[in-house]
Amino acid sequence: MSTPSAAPALVSSTAIRAFAALTGLTSLGIFAQAVTAGEFVSQEHRGGWIAAHNVIAMITVLLALVTAIFALVAVRRARAGLAWSAVALLVLLVAQTGIGSAITEAHADGLIGVHVPLAFIVFGLTAWLSMKAAQLRRSQERAAA
Fold first, then answer.
1. pLDDT by residue (tens digit) across 72-121?
2. Domain positions in the chain
């Protein structure tokens, strides 16, 4: 005798929309990081761009923290993989920010070879997370209709 497989727990459509919005905002912050990084590479007067890059990094880490907490509290029952991916994104962003600080404050330019590839990983994860959050939102809306 087989037992039916457990369906994922339902999460309110408001929570799913909020999670999708939070992942979108975090993604926007990460995209802004890429733009500001591109502005100060190999420029003489780049201090303002580096300062903007640092401020946006802090805002993005804060957004990722809120997203991860929200995901663990409101989304984990329905989609544990999404919640833990949001936590992984937070951890990677904290590491990325620490490496970036070491590069600018301690002049550890050797870490650029870690910082740039890690940025690609972060960018890919945030794109995937945003796409999955949007898919979850759309599937939830179809199920409610």
1. 999 998 899 999 999 999 999 999 999 999 999 999 999 999 999 999 99
2. 13-144
Q: Return the amino acid letter for 55.
A: V
Q: Identify which of 54, 87, 51, 46 has the alpha carbon closest to the alpha carbon of residue 69.
A: 87
What residue type is assigned to position 62 of the chain?
Answer: L
Q: Is 12 helix (H, G, I), strand (E, B) or coil?
A: coil
- Tokens, residue 22: 């939070």
Question: Which pair of structure tokens corresponds to residue 101?
Answer: 């600080």
Using the structure block, give the residue that is written with the tokens 């733009």.
Answer: 35
- Cβ 115 vs Cβ 33: under 8 Å: no
The number of angstroms, rounded, from the C-alpha of 82 to the middle of its chain's C-alpha atoms is 11
**What is the distance between the terminal CA atoms of the chain, rounded to a whole angstrom?**
34
Report yes or no: 133 and 82 within 8 Å, Cβ to Cβ. yes
Distance CA 47, CA 11 (A): 45
Angle 16-31-66 (CA atoms, 0-180°, nearest 5)?
40
